[in-house]
Structure of Dihydroxyacetone kinase 2:
Amino acid sequence: MGAQKHVLNEPSTLVVDSLKGLVALNPFIHLDEAQRVIYRPQSGTHRVALLSGGGSGHEPAHAAFVGPGLLDAAVCGNIFASPNVAQVRRGIELVTAQDKGALVVVMNYTGDALHFGLAAETFRSAGRGEVRVLMVGDDVAVGKKQGSIVGRRGLAGTILVYKIASALSDKGADLDKVEAVAKYACTRLGTLGIGLDHCHVPGTTAGESHLSAGELELGMGIHNEPGTSKLPLGTASDLVGNMLGKIVDTTDADRGFVPFKHDGKDEVVLLVNDLGAVSELEMSGITNEAVSWLQKKNITVRRVFAGTYMTSLNMPGFSLTLLLLPRDGDAYSSQDILSLLDAPASAPGWRWTSGQEPGKLGAKVQEAVAHKGKEVDLAPADSTEFLAAITRACKALIEAEPELTKQDQIAGDGDAGLTLEAGAKGVLKAISEGKMSGKNVIEDIKVISEVCDEDMGGTSGALYSIFFAGLGTSLRDQANSGAKSTTPEVWSKAAAEALTVLYKYTRARPPSRTLVDPLEAFVASLPSKGLSASADDAHAAADKTKELVAKAGRGAYVNQEELKKREVPDPGAWGIWRVVDGLRGYEA
């Protein structure tokens, strides 16, 4: 990949600048700038609220789909990183009527599952209304066996799900019915994407393409992760036929996700989606090939949607989505679903549609009130060294950013280095501003957990935040049981209990080619070996990930053999090693 140029002020302000431009374009929507929520002000007519969101970089999804007949709110994270819990909760608060509730429709990624799920749970537990979260997984690139833990990724088919759900909400349906139709649509979706190259995340060093001029990657996601296989570029006709053939295939039990009958009575809705850098000229040609292929296979195309719906920044690629319509005897009729898709909708990102078969034209932000728990003190054994160790760990992560970014450009979506760097800088800022005193480890660990959630975002931010929250809980419990200061035994017990808490929210277990590999190695060694030797064990576990098959995280979707050949460790695991190396006395 050559040098990348972008038109922006600063990478750090790009998301908010973009959202402000969206509000300037559409005066019927509002922006809660502090929490990066685009929303429609509530009117006198209450309905089941529809919310979506996730990492930025997929424009027009999701913010540009806020409008009548579509979303009530979209919550926007950093580029390719999930928004945090506070952002999601604010979005729910802004648009949810207590008597009707809300349905949150998001793509199936770990960070979104954690943050949107926790926000919905806390909103519901406060008695403020019923909120349900639906994770959409429409990707057919990865088989059921390889994706058994993480499930199918959410791709462009998500747009069709919330269009259907929103239209039914407009008809006055209750939450049960809105959720039911959305779930039904999810079971009948299949999406497959291709990329001619990777996109470039503003603010990062451009990586080198590992595709030749005549190659493409099949099974590309929307976070810059590699595809599942490489193919010759070939013609549009051959490529489209290959992609659709995989979506409609029912002969392979491991990859047959959509229940096509292939009896001449299958009816579909086709969505042709530009991933960011395919010309309109090419997109129309791709659409023509897709419709022609389906008609030749005796699959009736009832509706066609084509254009830019869900991108991966500036990726040169596209995805194809099929929504299999109901048969006689199903809970819904074909016309039921089509009428919901055809219902009027108005938002900047919503493309023109014919409503016919092919060829037939026809406010002020409220400050959150903090509720403090019971005050408990637990002093570090050495206050100066405690803060110095944290500072070393943060500096080690910051210096490792280029290394981690390069690893993640090969094994993931390219944002690992910047994500961990953001968390490290946030902790250093908290120390410099006096938010961490070094005198009460319980309060200082709480600050680190909050920084990880707010400044890092994404899956890494959630995992780090949960671990440190568990660490703080254990330290608090030990203080309540009589501990007066931290000792190696106190830290070892807290680390073990924090790992147990983390395992409540992730299915990843060693060996999994994720950050839990070195983390568990470190925690397990700590009681008997001490800090320095345990850091060596973490290093060995992180280095071992070069040889492992990814069982969780975005690496689970990547071509495993190609990953092994390139001998790159998991960037998340390598980040853990850099942290513990810094704690024990890393020197640049």
Notes: Residues 12-138+145-175 form a domain with the Rossmann fold fold (CATH 3.40.50.10440). The CA atoms of residues 56 and 79 lie 4 Å apart.
